[in-house]
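Worked example 3 (structure in, sequence out).
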């Protein structure tokens, strides 16, 4: 299909992505291959492979529905197709600890590196086993103990991650602890990309987030475009909630309130003084999106949660505007808009990456 979406490189003359990107069934369907199969998805933390060395999961459950399994052997983590090479039963059905993968349908076994090990009843089968009988291997990437996987590995996210490594020197990544009580999932009535667009601009902050507006110096808010990513930074209005960084970090002389990293297409890593909040924006349907909302806290640090500046309140404020935009984008009277050249460089960057991918 010829991609008819174009975004001018010059934000001052550009028009936004046309509404059929959000409303057309074929565009949504083809985004599985053009955007999501190529992308890196954050799956879990290495801690979740400490107890069980086999970790089955579904890549973009409800959308791509690809059954995969992570395995750990010594210190090596790998990912494989979780589909048995015999007749396609799923191999690993739940997290477990075992030195082999065993399919329960007819007993085929695999090594933790995906190689077929044994198969009963195949004594007279010719040219068996072959390469085809091994589990397909899936690309993995581990950053700060977070495990990412990609089906096609076509979106390079190394420079975004390197940017975070550089700016967040001294951030206590190894002390982050998953906080189940502050983690949840939301299903919203919106196209996934609208959620990302809202995240990528500061323009709405004074209109939508009154609480947050008090906590940060809006005039010093910055949006930095990266390869397959965007970083937004906010500075504290008072020093209380400043992120502690080492002296070698580029912003060590500033009272940093937050680093908001977005990684194309659907991952948000929000670093605060109290810890890390992660949003993974998963398409379900054109008009339905799951937001995985994960909280990792640093020891002895607490999220502010009294005066409308906690991340839960901000999340609700964002979801409300995103769902309103979704209604509007489906209107026959809306096709495209213009960008604020001052405040919407992140959205423009996102739209350009999308049109290049399609
Ligand atoms: S499908 Fe797995 S052994 Fe038959
Ligand atoms: Fe917002």
């Amino acid at each position: 299909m010829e991609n008819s979406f174009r975004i001018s490189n010059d934000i001052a003359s550009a028009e936004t992505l046309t509404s059929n990107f959000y409303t057309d069934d074929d565009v949504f369907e083809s985004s599985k291959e053009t955007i999501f199969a190529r992308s890196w998805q954050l799956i879990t933390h290495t801690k979740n492979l400490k107890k069980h060395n086999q970790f089955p999961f579904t890549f973009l459950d409800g959308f791509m529905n690809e059954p995969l399994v992570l395995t750990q052997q010594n210190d090596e983590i790998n990912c494989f197709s979780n589909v048995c090479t015999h007749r396609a039963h799923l191999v690993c059905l739940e997290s477990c600890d075992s030195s082999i993968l065993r399919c329960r349908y007819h007993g085929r076994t695999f090594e933790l590196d995906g190689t077929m090990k044994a198969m009963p009843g195949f004594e007279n089968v010719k040219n068996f086993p072959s390469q085809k009988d091994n589990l397909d291997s899936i690309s993995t990437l581990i950053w700060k103990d977070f495990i990412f996987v990609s089906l096609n590995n076509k979106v390079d996210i190394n420079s975004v991650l390197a940017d975070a490594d550089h700016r967040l020197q001294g951030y206590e990544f190894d002390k982050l602890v998953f906080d189940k009580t502050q983690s949840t999932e939301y299903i919203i009535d919106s196209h996934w990309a609208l959620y990302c667009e809202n995240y990528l601009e500061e323009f709405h902050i004074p209109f939508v987030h009154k609480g947050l507006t008090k906590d940060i110096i809006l005039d010093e808010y910055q949006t930095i475009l990266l390869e397959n990513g965007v970083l937004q930074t906010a500075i504290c209005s008072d020093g209380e909630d400043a992120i502690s960084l080492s002296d070698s970090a580029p912003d060590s002389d500033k009272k940093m309130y937050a680093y908001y990293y977005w990684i194309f297409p659907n991952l948000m890593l929000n670093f605060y003084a109290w810890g890390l909040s992660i949003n993974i924006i998963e398409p379900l349907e054109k008009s339905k999106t799951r937001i995985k909302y994960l909280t990792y806290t640093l020891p002895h640090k607490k999220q502010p949660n009294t005066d409308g500046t906690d991340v839960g309140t901000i999340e609700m404020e964002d979801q409300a505007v995103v769902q309103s935009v979704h209604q509007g984008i489906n209107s026959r009277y809306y096709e495209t808009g213009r960008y604020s050249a001052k405040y919407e460089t992140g959205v423009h960057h996102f739209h350009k990456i999308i049109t290049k991918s399609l």
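Notes: The chain has two domains: 41-150, 158-357. The pocket of FE2/S2 (inorganic) cluster (ligand 1) is lined by residues 84, 86-87, 89, 103, 105-108 (CB under 6 Å).
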